[in-house]
Amino acid sequence: MDATPKRSHVKYELLLRAAQRLPPVPTAVAHPCDDVSLEAAVEAAKQRLIAPILVGPPARVRAVAAAAGLDISPYPLVASAHSHDSAARAVALVREGKAEALMKGSLHTDELMAAVVAHDTGLRTERRISHCFVMDVPGHADPLIITDAAVNIAPSLEDKVDIVQNAIDLAHAMELPEVRVAILSAMETVNPKVPSTVEAAALCKMAERGQITGAILDGPLALDNAISLEAAAVKHIVSPVAGHANVLVVPDLEAGNMLAKSLSFLAGADAAGIVLGARVPIILTSRADSLITRLASCAVASLLAEARRKNAAAALRA
């Protein structure tokens, strides 16, 4: 008998319940041509998180469904020739107004994102596209949003303004009561020899001047004093963010990727992935993700789609 204790997913379950109160979001699922990605789309539909539109080579998708024992008859199936074509056709469904979210199937992330950022046919907005992990860390009271660990390799200060604002908008869509953003570095003091500390200070000043809105920012902060009250107290840091951060902004992709994977593999955390800054939320999952993590990514996309609808309605009333 397996004596391993079952993981609690309270934070993700709260996200799922919030999303299930909304109509399922029409979602173009790009190239669900393996059992993992197709099962995730079908299960998310059963959970009333998404209304999937499957985009892939029909014979291949049906073969995967038959082998996995999945009934895909309730869902539209849009034919494509191969994975690149699946990405392009899924993006086209969004542009045509038939889908309000995009979901990665079994194609490579670069293939999907190439279609998203295409100049004339993609889904770009005035915002920089960025990635967030919504992490459920055992023993930590709140979900942690970590950005950017998958899209922007070495973001400039200008890029980070959008990266931070995207994360803040995500936190509001998740209905976090207060958004507290820690701009991370290796230290908590500004040091001209460490560019990330200078950029952190600049981002905080930009927030003070209204160039970044909707959250309390502080930085530079080291990881320990961003999430641990004891560590902040030892360093004599008095801040509404230090020890209480629920959004962590990393200096670059390498730092973010290592932080997220350290939490996943050493602390048993789950990491739901979402891409922001495009016309619609993009559900970005890994083949290694558990089903609950994939469902949480769908739930986050549903909440973001609802926030987008509300913002559009408010803009029409203004």
From the alpha carbons, calculate the radius of gyration and give it in angstroms: 20 Å
Helical fraction: 40-55%
**Per CATH, what is the topology of the largest domain?**
Rossmann fold
Rounded to the nearest angstrom, the distance between the terminal CA atoms is 61 Å
Helix-and-strand structural type? alpha/beta
- In total, how many beta strands? 11
Largest sheet: 11 strands, mixed
Concise description?
This protein has 318 residues and is an alpha/beta fold. It has helices spanning 10-20, 35-46, 58-68, 83-95, 109-117, 157-173, 195-208, 223-227, 229-234, 253-267, 291-317, and strands at 25-30, 50-56, 77-79, 101-104, 130-136, 144-147, 180-184, 216-221, 247-249, 270-276, 282-283.
Task: Tell me what you see in this structure.
The chain has an eleven-stranded mixed beta sheet with strand order 3-2-1-4-11-10-5-6-9-7-8, with helices on both faces. It has two domains: 1-124 and 288-318, Rossmann fold; 127-277, 3-Layer(aba) Sandwich (Isopropylmalate Dehydrogenase). Strand 2, helix 3 (58-68) and strand 3 form a beta-alpha-beta unit. The protein is 44% helix and 17% strand. It is α/β, with parallel strands linked by helices. It has helices at 10-20, 35-46, 58-68, 83-95, 109-117, 157-173, 195-208, 223-227, 229-234, 253-267, 291-317; strands at residues 25-30, 50-56, 77-79, 101-104, 130-136, 144-147, 180-184, 216-221, 247-249, 270-276, 282-283. The chain is built from eleven helices and eleven strands. The termini are far apart.
Lay out the secondary structure:
Layout (H helix, E strand, L loop, with lengths): L9 H11 L4 E6 L4 H12 L3 E7 L1 H11 L8 E3 L3 H13 L5 E4 L4 H9 L12 E7 L7 E4 L9 H17 L6 E5 L10 H14 L7 E6 L1 H5 L1 H6 L12 E3 L3 H15 L2 E7 L5 E2 L7 H27 L1
Parallel strand pairs: 1-2, 1-4, 2-3, 4-11, 6-9, 7-8, 7-9
Antiparallel strand pairs: 5-6, 5-10, 10-11
Helix pairs in contact: 1-11, 2-11, 4-5, 6-11
